[in-house]
């Protein structure tokens, strides 16, 4: 099996992995999924490194693509050589960290620039913009390194060594087990103290992982995953994303407050801290209005039915 590196961008960046069926061999599904996810990372790395000044979407999409690739690598790790999986995981994690730091600054600048008082906030926007420009260099550097190492070749060496697990399990069975594990981790996190911001953040991470699992295992299940279950998880992630944006902004501003003491930026930062605290409280209340015990119970029941249904019923 050979890796083709060029496809239309819309297809490469799709969240879904089309062409999979419950009865196919899991080795085929794993090959196709990981190939697509890694290819998407590579296709986005160059524009994120070289054209981020034209659009913040390049870095944003790179971070999302890298997270999806890491999730797929974890979901199919047993099908590939352990050492190659570990090396690829470390590589993807470095890309994710570089893109994540840059994306955090992009979000801050975008949110401030959208304010009616953006002109008055210009000194703060410029200060954050300067930090954003500084973290672009590591993205360019990791792109140069991976290009020198011939990342597409490294990817081919990994995905072409896919092997069949003992018993040559079907994709449907593999997907049910993987989804069940992700759902169990999600509901374990859901049982924590979600009033605590740190535990709420861990719940968000577990939900994000469940979302990625549903994306690459969707082909093993019926259409309800895409039309019903996934939108529910996506809505949850959207609400928690707003909470995270406020929490992340607040953490940055509180760090910068001491750094900028005595400067004109201090007053602007203090103002943003007050706004972000208020916004964080509002976002958390909005999430808990939506995430009720009944909604949680319903989602658990629906996921349980999904993973217990045999392959032939999903394929029907």
Give an account of the 3D structure.
With 316 residues, the protein is mostly helical. It folds into two domains: 22-169, CHAD domain; 170-316, Alpha solenoid (CHAD domain), CATH 1.40.20. The chain has 13 helices and no strands. It has helices at 9-12, 26-50, 57-75, 82-113, 122-134, 136-148, 151-159, 171-190, 197-217, 224-259, 264-290, 293-308, 311-315. The longest helix has 36 residues, at 224-259. It is flat, with a radius of gyration of 21 Å.
Shape: flat
User: For this structure, what is the CATH class of the largest domain?
Assistant: Mainly Alpha
**Derived structural class:** mainly alpha
Total of DSSP H or I helical runs spanning 4+ residues = 13
CATH topology of the largest domain: CHAD domain
Which oligomerization state do the chains in this entry correspond to? single chain
Listing every helix as H and every strand as E from the N terminus to the C terminus, the arrangement reads HHHHHHHHHHHHH
Topology (elements, then pairings):
Elements: H1 9-12, H2 26-50, H3 57-75, H4 82-113, H5 122-134, H6 136-148, H7 151-159, H8 171-190, H9 197-217, H10 224-259, H11 264-290, H12 293-308, H13 311-315
Could you give a short description of this structure?
It is built from 13 helices and no strands. By secondary structure, the chain is an all-alpha fold.
List keywords for this structure.
316 residues; mainly alpha; CHAD domain; 2 domains; flat; disordered N terminus
